[in-house]
Amino acid sequence: MKKLVGVLTAAVVMSAAACGSSSGGDDSGAIKIGSVHPTTGALAGVGGLMNDGAALAVADINAAGGIAALDGRQLELVSGDSQGKAEVGQSEAQRLIDDGAVALIGTYQSDVTQNVASVAERSRVPFVIDVAVDDKILDQGYQYTFRIQPNASSMGTDGARALAAIESQTGQPIDKVSYLHIEGSFGDSVFDAFEAEAAAQGISSVQEITYPATNFSDATTQVREAAVSNPDVIVATGYYPDSLLIARAVDQLGLNVKGLYGIANGGFDDSSFPEDAGAAGQGVLSANYHYDATSERTNDIRARFEQQFGRPMETAAMLSYQAVEVIAEGLNSGADSDPEALREAIAGVSIDDPLLAFAGPIEFDETGQNKNATVIVTQVRDGSVLQVFPEEFATDALQFPAGAGQ
C-alpha cells in the first residue's frame, strides 16, 4: 500500500469534481467506480458525507498521478442514490454497472447492502462495503463482496470484551446491563453476540429492550423499562436519531447508572452528537469502528475534507475514502481494470496504513471480511469525542463511572 498512500500528501487539495473524464472504463478512459449511498431521505446527511468521502479519495488519487500500474489512468466516481431503500439501491447498483463501473462501494444500511451484493455477484463486479455490519451479507458465500469494517457479531463480541476490560481497568463492577437496540437484523445480531460474550466475561445479567426502526420519536418508555433491573450500564445499538433520543431520556430520567455505552452505535461517536445532546451527551461511551485520531494521514484527510465540503468528516465517510483506496490498490497490484481480474487483486491486497483505529493491515479472509477490523472505545467530554480505549489509540484518559447519577 505504501506506493499508493505515499503520494497522497497534504499538498493534494483538489476539487472532488475533478475525478477524471467521463469516457467510461475502456483501456484508455477513466476507470469508473460506482458509489451507492442514501443521498436523499432520512439518512441523506451521512449518505452525502460518504459520497463526498469517496469523491475526495478519487480526486486525491487522480491528483497524485492516477493508477500508476495502468499508465496513470484516472478514476471517475459515478454515484447512485439508494434513498435508503433496498430495492432502489439494487436498481442503482445495476444502473452504475451498466454504465461501466468496474467496482462498487456502499451502502451504509445492511438491507440495501445485501441487495447490492447480490447484484455485484450476479454481474461479477467487485463490491467493497464501506459501512454495513450484518453478518448475513457475507454468509451467502459471495466471491465479489468485501467488507473493511468489523461485522455485527464481532462488534457485539468486542464491545462486551471492552466493557469487561473497562471494569478491570477501573475497578468498577459491571454485573448487570440493560441493552436497548433497534429492531431488525442489525440490532439483533449485535445484541446476540454481546449477550453471549458478556456471559463469558462474567456479566451476570443482560436485559434486552427493543424499539421500532420507524416512527420512533420518544425513548422514555424504553429507557424506563431498561431502568427496572437497576443496571450498572445501559447499552444502546441503533442509528443517530434514535441514539440521541435514548441519551436524552437517560439524562431526563436522572438514572443512577455508571455509564451509557453504545455498541455499533450511529450516534455516540458522531462529531455532531456532543452539541446536539448537550448535557445528555457528557460522558457517553461508544464501542465502534472509528477513524484513527492518532494518525497524521487520517487527520490530514479530515482537515482537507472539512475545508472542501464544510462539514466534519465522520468515520463513515472515512470508510468510503478507504474503500476507494482498496479498489485503487487492487487496480495497481493487478494492473487490470477488468472487473473479474480486479476481484482477484482485491482479494489479495494488504494495506498496512489503515485510516481506522485497528492494529494490523487491511486483509480479507475467504469470506471477504477484513481479518483485522475491530472496535475502539470513545467518550464524549466537554463537547468533543475522544478516543479513550485501548491505550495505543487513546487521545485522552477514560473516565468511568460516567453516568448521569454519578
List the helices and strands and how they pair.
Layout: H1 2-5, E1 31-37, H2 44-63, E2 75-81, H3 86-98, E3 103-106, H4 110-123, E4 127-129, H5 136-139, E5 145-147, H6 152-170, E6 176-182, H7 185-200, E7 205-211, H8 220-227, E8 233-237, H9 240-252, E9 259-263, H10 273-277, E10 285-288, H11 296-309, H12 315-334, H13 339-347, E11 376-381, E12 384-389
Parallel strand pairs: 1-2, 1-3, 3-4, 4-5, 6-7, 6-8, 8-9, 9-10
Antiparallel strand pairs: 10-11, 11-12
Helix pairs in contact: 2-12, 3-4, 6-7, 8-9, 12-13
Descriptive overview:
The protein is an alpha/beta fold and 406 residues long. The chain is built from 13 helices and 12 strands. The protein has a 7-stranded mixed beta sheet, sandwiched between helices. The protein has a 5-stranded parallel beta sheet with strand order 2-1-3-4-5, sandwiched between helices. β6, α7 and β7 form a beta-alpha-beta unit.
Task: Give the gist of this structure.
It is built from 13 helices and twelve strands. The strands form two sheets. It has a seven-stranded mixed beta sheet, with helices on both faces.
- Oligomeric form of this entry? single chain
Envelope shape: globular
Radius of gyration: 21 Å
Number of strands: 12
Strand order of the largest sheet: 7-6-8-9-10-11-12
Q: What class, by secondary structure content?
A: alpha/beta
Distance between the termini: 46 Å
SS field, number of helical segments: 13
Estimated helix fraction: 25-40%
**Model regions low in confidence, pLDDT < 50 over at least 5 residues:** 5-25
Average pLDDT, rounded to a whole number, is 92
| Beta-strand content bin | 15-25%
